[in-house]
Amino acid sequence: MTQKTLKAAVLGASGYTGAETVRLLRNHPHVEAVAATGNALAGQKLSSIFPHLGGRGDLDVIKAEDVRWDEIDVAFGCLPHGTSQDLIETLPSNVKIVDLSSDYRFRDPVAYSKAYGREHIAPERTASAIYGLSEHAAESLKGADLVACPGCYPTAILMVLLPLMSPLIIDTDSIIIDAKSGASGAGRGLKEGNLFCEVTEGTHAYGVGTHRHTPEIEQELNLRAGKSDIEVTFTPHLLPMARGEHVTCHLRGDVHDVQAALEAAYANQPFVTVLPLGSPPPDTRHVRGTNDCRIAVYPDRVKGRVIVIGVIDNLVKGSSGQAIQNLNLMMGWDQALGLDVLVPLFP
Ligand SMILES: NC(=O)C1=CN([C@@H]2O[C@H](COP(=O)(O)OP(=O)(O)OC[C@H]3O[C@@H](n4cnc5c(N)ncnc54)[C@H](OP(=O)(O)O)[C@@H]3O)[C@@H](O)[C@H]2O)C=CC1
Ligand SMILES: CC(=O)N[C@@H](CCC(=O)OP(=O)(O)O)C(=O)O
After folding, report:
1. DSSP alpha helices (H): ranges in the chain?
2. Which ligand approaches the C-alpha of residue 154 most closely?
3. Among residues 232, 248, 284, 343, which one has the fewest Cβ atoms lying within 10 Å of its Cβ?
4. How many folded domains does the chain comprise?
């Protein structure tokens, strides 16, 4: 039997994750992007905004209200948080939603309001959405209608930390996460902090002690560990590069236990490589342009401490790639469909 091709609308295709979703879907055998939406840039061809997407399958960027929703099977929400829920809650109920924003990531609407400073317009839906860290949610993703893709930092960090939570093999009182992102993590919108001169030839921390990804990370760690008191120290930094995310987790535990737990968790996972102990540290360029995640474990010279490094591409595993991986799992397909063709771009 021939597989039906799902018709996808990419909401926010004139932004970075939307354009990346369109790019990646071109490799997908069973999903076709047939609608692309934008706001200020609606009215243009997608290839005039993103010339690299020119050629086959060019799309008109239209407003979401002009999409012919009766023809759409799945929507990828690549919109700013807040805008995302406002639009998603107006869509027909038969359209499957894979949301890349933070709008449906919080299982507790009160925690959402605390982190984002607004009331959720559909608190019961955020409570029941599936948190789509693909490798850790495969079963619950099957048949799901609404999936919240994790943030790019939470993706890289939880890929490292979740396998250490159950059984709990690290001390949860001393988790310190030093994280770095390329500037595409901040989106394509014009912001002073993203100007070339503000980003190049330097680096700086931001959101120190306050970043909104901290409660998202803590939510998932506590759920996995069956606890409610895990807190983490998380410090993100902006690096002068377009894409890539690098996290260094400083933990208290046994290096061999940590290595064994990570190897066991990802033994059969196509996108995750746990490097052998003693390997050179992974580089964001080893996963650039792919849905891969590489993890490496090191003993600290301080007795009883372990350092674990994870790298992903924020625009692929950290957003659009994982979104497609999630759709594959929702549909009961091979999770790697359309994504296993990607090969890292180095240097
Ligand atoms: N960048 C990343 O690495 C990651 C991003 N995310 C999340 O994914 C989502 C998209 O991020 P990203 O692609 O970087 O963002 P961008 O700023 O690059 O793109 C935002 C998109 O949303 C559209 N948009 C903005 N405002 C409105 C509105 N009021 N109504 C309708 N459409 C609107 C924009 O249209 P137009 O330009 O035409 O005005 C654009 O297409 C965000 O929620 C982000 O937090 C998650 C993980 C990683
Ligand atoms: C470099 C940079 O600015 N990164 C963004 C995170 C991108 C991401 O994952 O964001 P969402 O949780 O909004 O989806 C930030 O720190 O806010």
Report:
1. 16-25, 46-49, 83-88, 109-116, 123-128, 134-141, 152-161, 196-199, 213-225, 255-265, 321-330
2. 2
3. 343
4. 2
Give pTM, 2 decimals: 0.97
Catalytic status, residue 293: no
Tens digit of pLDDT for each residue in 261-300?
Answer: 999 999 999 999 999 999 999 999 999 999 999 999 999 9
3-state secondary structure (DSSP) of residue 119: coil
pLDDT, tens digit, for every residue of 162-207? Answer: 999 999 999 999 999 999 999 999 999 999 999 999 999 999 999 9
Pocket test for ligand 1, best of 21, 100, 325 (most atoms within 8 A of CB): 100
Could you tell me if residue 282 is inside a domain?
yes
* Same domain for 158 and 113: no
Q: Indicate whether 250 belongs to any domain.
A: yes
Query: Other C-beta atoms within 10 Å of 310: how many?
Result: 28
**Above 80 in pLDDT, residue 254?**
yes
Residue ranges making up the domain that contains 272 = 153-314
Contact indicator for 251, 305 with CB cutoff of 8 Å: yes
Nearest ligand, measured from the Cα of 189: 1
